[in-house]
Amino acid sequence: MKAAIVLFPGSNREGDAFRALRQAGADASIVWHDDHALPAGTDLVVLPGGFSYGDYLRCGAIAGRAKIMDAVRAHAARGGYVLGICNGFQILCESGLLPGVLMRNRDLRFVCKRQFLRVERNDTAFSRAYAKHQAIDVAIAHGEGNYEAHDETIRELEDQGRVAFRYCNADGVVGGDANPNGSTNDIAGIYSEKLNVLGMMPHPENLIDPLVGGIDGRGLFQSLVAA
Amino acid sequence: MKARVTVTLKTGVLDPQGKAIEGALHSLGVAGVASVRQGKVFDIEVEGDDAEAAKAALAAASEKLLANTVVENYRVEIL
Q1: What secondary structure does DSSP assign to B28-43, as a single string?
Q2: CATH number for the domain including B42?
Q3: ipTM of the complex, rounded to two decimals
């Protein structure tokens, strides 16, 4: 598994993504956004978290239109894997690789805390190391994570089984107080139609070491490396 | 030539910032505020004097970048 982590001005979680991929056994490298092409043989593109271009205009709006995104779109169209985490999810939505938009959190606060997610399906390249409906303990840190889309888009995502993760509590009960940002249907992450692109607000790459209190994030990277 | 692009949230899209401003105006005692929706204004200096061409260019700019048409509307004016 050869992974390219795209670095934009203002990205700040590229090191965490790098560490998580390396730990899972991937051959990972960090690529500057101004390159026109991805490294030869790239299997997985990671758009890391952070505040690309200072969140100017809208979160992910400027990065979503960077030159490298043409290469990422072509990679995805070929069936290559793309993982967008946090700001990376916002970039995927702004670039048109995933539908919908991430709006300001319902209560206007930046939320930075541990968060449980329910794994909605475990038959994708991103999720095989988990059990179906397993509640995994990861982290969130975002001000704009409230996923919204047209009603028919939400219906489509649900009907096609493209919701990857939902916010839940420690017992795996979805929604209610467990939803940190008002996201529609408690959506924390979604897949593209061909299930090769995943955008998610939470940070699995931050929970890969017992030293920081948990390793539930490892499964996602192990799944990818085994894919 | 001066132009202005105004980007606003579509009707029905939740606007927590607008709501917070609305609440603040109420607590300041500003009378008669029924509701507030927040948007963005871009003042743009356009080269040349072809108003129609400028409008078309700025509509393209809005579609491509200035607005996220999933949740936002835009209006182009030549001032």
Answers
A1: TT-TT------EEEEE
A2: 3.30.1280.10
A3: 0.82
